[in-house]
Amino acid sequence: MAQTQRKHGTCKPTIFPPTLITVWETIPVPTPRPIRLLIRLLAAGVCRSDHNLLTNEVQPSFSKQHFTLGHEGCGEIVGFGSALTPNSTSCQYKLGDIVALLAVPGCGDLETCEECRIGEPQLRLTGYRSGIGMDGFFAEYCVIDVRGAVLVPRNVSPAQAAVATDAVTTAYHAIHRRACIISSDVVFLFGLGGLGFNALQIIRAIGAKVLVSDVKQENLDAAVELGVSEEDCVPVGKGVREWVEERGWSGRIGVTADFVGTEGTFGDAQHIREFLSICLQAGRMLCVGTLNHENTVHMKLAIRKRLDIIFSYGGQTRDLKEALDLIAQGVLNSMVSNGKLEDLPKVMKALEEGKVQGRVALLCD
């Protein structure tokens, strides 16, 4: 059974599925294993996936029966496992360093682990997965494999760093490593939520042209504030395929980036007619959003258009490092609002009702 929140040494609310009833629990400070760090948490981001883990009837096969949620974290190093020596070849960190926490760093076994060997450690099912079936970051303390820690630049806040570990890193990995978007691309972006708003900024930083669609006017307004032309935003309620035709974008869009994942967005991405005109390269459909568990591929259409349907999941420490650098440089500004750890039940409810814009980071006292 997933828990959302734990406090060490004092009692604080914990929410249990499926009713989201709040109870109280106290747990001991964890002891780090040999290659893990003990972290005093400063901030933890709240993700739609946290809500899904609470409410899904079927949990991942590797899940513990009872665990703490939270997979976006930032904190201060306060302890080292027995195999780690601070400021050495075994560990580049020292006590007091502020680090962002990558929830799924893989197992690190390059000899027997195929996922880690090919450079996709976030796909490893048997490695530690903070907050995803195993204890995570909605607590005062946590442990993290040293390979999952990334030093936070001085001018990046704990809230920004926490959110960067997933909401930014996942978008960065998808855009740079999977879809390989370049400055000459024209990209149609579906969704300006927690990940999509960051994706928009990453695409713009590359220099690519981006067209955007979202069901909320406030998200489109935020895109315009970033510098996106109103003419490049699909009006709320307007059909995407119709808009593409009317605006003369048929035959000019090379990539669709779906950060929603509904039947509507997945269908629109396949049917946008611009892909019919691509000659030098096939159209790319980047799929990141997972609001629907299943969507339908139009096989004949996809084959005739030579579509590359690209799925992306999570990211790696190099993505997190580069994402934090973009934030430090002022190139990327995540849409983050702050709360307290005690606010988690209220934030979960707001997520369920679709009332959260961007991301919420819970600050730990």
Order of helices and strands: EEEEEHEEEHEEHEHEHHEHEHEHEHE
Structural class: alpha/beta
Separation, N- and C-terminal Cα atoms: 26 Å
Helix proportion range: 25-40%
SSE order and pairing:
Layout: E1 2-3, E2 7-8, E3 12-16, E4 21-27, E5 36-46, H1 48-55, E6 67-68, E7 72-80, E8 98-102, H2 114-117, E9 141-145, E10 149-151, H3 158-178, E11 186-190, H4 196-206, E12 209-213, H5 217-226, H6 240-246, E13 255-258, H7 263-271, E14 284-287, H8 299-304, E15 308-311, H9 317-328, E16 336-340, H10 344-352, E17 359-363
Parallel strand pairs: 1-6, 2-4, 11-12, 11-13, 13-14, 14-15, 16-17
Antiparallel strand pairs: 3-4, 5-7, 5-9, 5-17, 7-8, 8-10
Helix pairs in contact: 3-4, 3-9
InterPro entries: ADH-like_C, ADH-like_N, GroES-like_sf, NAD(P)-bd_dom_sf, Zn_alcohol_dh
Domain Alcohol dehydrogenase-like N-terminal: 36-153
GO molecular function: oxidoreductase activity
Summarize this structure briefly:
This protein has 365 residues and is an alpha/beta fold. It has helices at 48-55, 114-117, 158-178, 196-206, 217-226, 240-246, 263-271, 299-304, 317-328, 344-352, and strands spanning 2-3, 7-8, 12-16, 21-27, 36-46, 67-68, 72-80, 98-102, 141-145, 149-151, 186-190, 209-213, 255-258, 284-287, 308-311, 336-340, 359-363.
